Amino acid sequence: MYRLIRSILFLFEPEKAHHISMNTLSVVIKIPIVKSIIQKLFTPKTNFKKIGGLKFRNIIGLGAGFDKNAKYLHELDSLGFGFVEIGTVTPLPQGGNEKPRLFRLKKDKALINRMGFNNAGVKQVKSNIIKWRNKYPESDLVVGGNIGKNKLTSNEDAWKDYVICFKALYDVVDYFVVNVSSPNTPGLRELQEKESLKKIITCLQQEREKFSDKKHIFLKVAPDLSLQQTDDIIDLSHEVKLDGLIIANTTISRAGLLTGKSILDSIGNGGLSGNPLNKISEDMLEYISSKISKEVILISSGGIFTAEDVRSRIKNGASLVQIWTSFIYEGPGILRKIS
Ligand SMILES: Cc1cc2nc3c(=O)[nH]c(=O)nc-3n(C[C@H](O)[C@H](O)[C@H](O)COP(=O)(O)O)c2cc1C
After folding, report:
1. I need a labelling partner for 136 at 20 to 30 A (CA). Which of 128, 252, 258, 299 fits?
2. Is residue 36 among the annotated active site residues?
3. Which of 309, 324, 334 should be mutated for ligand 1, with most atoms under 8 A from CB?
C-alpha cells in the first residue's frame, strides 16, 4: 500500500511531498475511525524502557529535522514513535537555504539535504509544543529539543544562542540535543572542536542548575570527524560529564554511491542520509562505545532500516535509535516492522 502512496508522493518535489503527506495525515487523523485504523495498522507494541530517567514506550525515535517546528507531534504520536526530536530550533526564525534543498537518491535509498536550519524560531516552536501538551496531556510521547544557532550568529557568540533556546524550551521538552554537526550552516561544524564545545555545554549545564529538575543534554556529532576529533569528544564527555551522544548526523561524504557523478554534481552540497550512512554511523558507534563510559547514553542515528540494524546498534552500545530517511522510503509501517 505504501509503495503506491510513495510512487505518488515521489512525483512531487521532496520538500513539497513532505508537507503534502504530513498535512494530509493531519487532516485524516481528525476522523476518529481513521485515527484508530492508523494506530491499529502502524503502532508498534509498547515495550516500556527507562533510560536517563525518562520512560520510553519503545526505543525507536524520529530524528531531528522532520518536525522542525513541533507542528506534527499529535500525528507522529499516533504513528507510534517512542520519541520525537523537534528542531533544530534557533533563537530567531529563519528561512534556511534557497530551494531546492532536498533531493532523493532513489538508487541508494538516500537523501541529500541542505535545509540550513529553516525553522519558525524558538518562541513559536515553544508555543506549538505547549498547544500540543495542553490538547493531549495524556500523551506519553517523549519529546526532545534539538537546538542550534542562527546563521548570522558568529561562532564566538554561538553559546548565547544555545542558552536562549535551552532556557526557552526547558519546561516543554524532555531532553536536549546540542546540534553542532549540521553541514548546512557555514562554520557550524567548527564548534565541534573541544574548547568551543566545552564552552557551550558547560554554559548549558550552569543554566540547568537553576531548574529544579535535571533534563539530559545530548551532543549530536558528525560522522565525518577525524579520529583525533572523535577522541577529543570522548574525553570531553568524561570531563564535563555529558549525559549522552547522538551518533551521528548526515555525512558530507559521497563515497560508494550508486547514483551517478553527474547527478551528484548537479545536486551539489548537502548532508547525505539513509542507507549509505548505515556502516559509517555503526562503525562510529562501535568505536565510541568501546572507549566511552557506560554512564554516557548513546543514541544511534544513520541508515537504520531494519530490525537487524536496530539489533546491531543495540549490540554496539546504543540505548535508543532514531530513524528518518527510512521513514520516507518505507513509510509508517517501518515502526511495526522493526519492532
Ligand atoms: C531533510 C533533513 C533535515 C534534517 N534536519 C536536521 C536538523 O535540523 N537537525 C539535526 O540535528 N539533524 C537533522 N537531520 C539529520 C537527521 O536527524 C539524521 O540524523 C540523519 O538524517 C541520519 O539519519 P537517517 O539516515 O536515518 O536519515 C536532517 C535530515 C534530513 C534528511
Report:
1. 299
2. no
3. 324
Q: Are 14 and 111 in contact (CB under 8 A)?
A: yes
- Counting other chains too, the contacts that 29-38 makes at CB distance below 8 Å and 24 or more residues apart are 29/74, 29/75, 29/78, 35/78, 38/78, 38/79, 38/332
Residue with CA at minimum distance from ligand 1 atom 21 = 273
Alpha-carbon distance 165 to 327, whole Å?
Answer: 28
Ligand 1 centroid, distance to 249 Cα (angstroms): 6
Burial of 181 (0-12, 13-18, 19+ CB in 10 A): buried
Residue tagged active-site, from 21, 78, 181, 182: 182
Instruction: Please say if the pLDDT value at position 1 is more than 80.
Output: no
Other Cβ atoms closer than 10 A to 27: 10
| Cα gap 175→170, rounded to integer Å | 8
CA dist list (Å): 291 to 267, 295, 316, 325: 37, 12, 12, 28
List pLDDT tens digits, range 167-197.
999 999 999 999 998 888 888 898 888 899 9
Q: Which residues contact 235 (CB under 8 A, 6 or more apart)?
A: 194
Q: What is the pLDDT at residue 2?
A: 80
205 contacts 231 by C-beta, under 8 angstroms: no
Q: Report the CATH number at residue 219.
A: 3.20.20.70
Q: Are strands 110-113 and 102-105 parallel, antiparallel or unpaired?
A: antiparallel
Supply the residue whose CA is at minimum distance from atom 22 of ligand 1.
302
pLDDT digits over 110-160, tens only?
A: 999 999 999 999 999 999 999 999 999 999 999 999 999 999 999 999 999
Residue 104, pLDDT > 80, answer yes
Q: How many domains does the chain have?
A: 1
pLDDT reported for residue 45 = 85
- The range of the structural domain enclosing residue 168 comes to 2-338
